[in-house]
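Dear support,

Our group has been running a series of protein-ligand predictions, and this particular one with 6-O-phosphono-beta-D-glucopyranose is the one our PI (initials K.S.) wants archived with full inputs and outputs. We had some confusion internally about which version of the output was final, so please treat the block below as the authoritative record. The input we submitted was:
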Amino acid sequence: MTRSFVVLGGTGDLTGRLLLPGLAELVAAGALAGPAAVVAVSREEWTDEEYRGWARDRLAEHAAHVPEEARERLLGRLGYRQGDVTVPADLRAGLERAGGVPVVYLALPNTVFLPTLEALAEVGLPEGAVVAVEKPFGRNLADARQLNEVLHRLVPEEQVFRTDHFLAMQTVLNILGLRFANRVFEPVWNAQHVEQVEIVFDETLGLEGRAGYYDTAGALRDMLQNHLLQVLAVVAMEPPAALDAHGLAARKADVLRAVRSPEDPRRDTVRARYTAGRVGERELPDYTAEPGVHPDRGTETYAEYTVQVENWRWAGVPFRLRSGKALGADRHEIVLRFRPVPHLAFGRQDGEAHPEPDVLRLRLDPDAISLEVNLNGAGDPFDLERRALAAELPPQALSAYGLLLGGLLDGEAALGISDVEAEESWRIVEPVLAAWAAGEVPLLEYPAGSDGPSPA
Ligand code: BG6
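Confirmed final output from the archive:
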């Protein structure tokens, strides 16, 4: 079977910034032997040469780490087809141009997912074709159900790939290694020993010219509905029998089914947006003054909520998820805070503080793992000292998109989101979205460059 790759939205930001660089990495690694062709479909009236010129510039900007010779080899395989992705005849022409059994990748604004899938259903896809859909998967549960329904008309669920590139980040994958290839962590990976879990993705980045998308999404839809819930699912899932798509998706879905939405949005959620400030060397304006932003939408650039995973393993442990833009520092980490020891035989005086409990910190990008523990001090042997057992991990060979696309083209797409997971994730956040839309939770403000509206 000859695989081809058809990217719908082939002149968009995502294609230029992430998909083409991912493909170039695969060419450099000798891992893009399969596809007959890579064909981009988009509205611009360009020739193949004009498209390659655009793609060459994007690769120079976003894939400078890939040798030029590999980038040129990718460009040599690129074809372009002008067309409207919601028009069946245009899609048919793009698919015919690519030939083979396609991976059809929807790198499109999510408002066009549905008409595009409807048009694809009208054209029909060859046996074995894969359909990949970017996030956010709709804007609510009803959308997600509708998208799933059309996708299932198009190809079987095993051939649908809902992208979440966080699943292909090294540290997220390392949770699997840490938990399931070692004896020492799994026995304490539960409510009896873990007091709290935090999943944090604080970014120094501001809007980066993405108002068109971001202002209608906001931090909750952009990060917490998908990426951070997926990380939660990997942290909290039961051990799968095998690390294949089915095993992972089924175990992640079990976790998401068990997540109770924040009970009291006023207590359990925070929403905020940044005001003018300085992040490192950059001066950022008020979010509302960014080009393309409609202040009346009340879009949040910071979202936080705390949920419970209601099952035997996790009952009673709060999982706190937070993410925001234009914050003072990039803090991307999963933190497991353990319970205090049941008895401390260190002759503490009354009133003397007990040592901090153990903390396991899994840092994403740059990747590092550290376990903060209490050890005997250097002076008085019965004094305690805080030490970290730490490992810095070398950067992963392929970017998250390189890894995802490699899996897709090899037909081993284990790192996606299933239909059930997509719907459950919306079920979890919908009450929060509703409470926020109804103004039940105030929209706070934080200066760009600060730690955000609530303590880290
Ligand atoms: C994207 C979000 O999915 O993930 C962005 O749309 C966010 O807003 C990004 O900045 C974070 O992932 P990465 O890989 O760029 O750190």
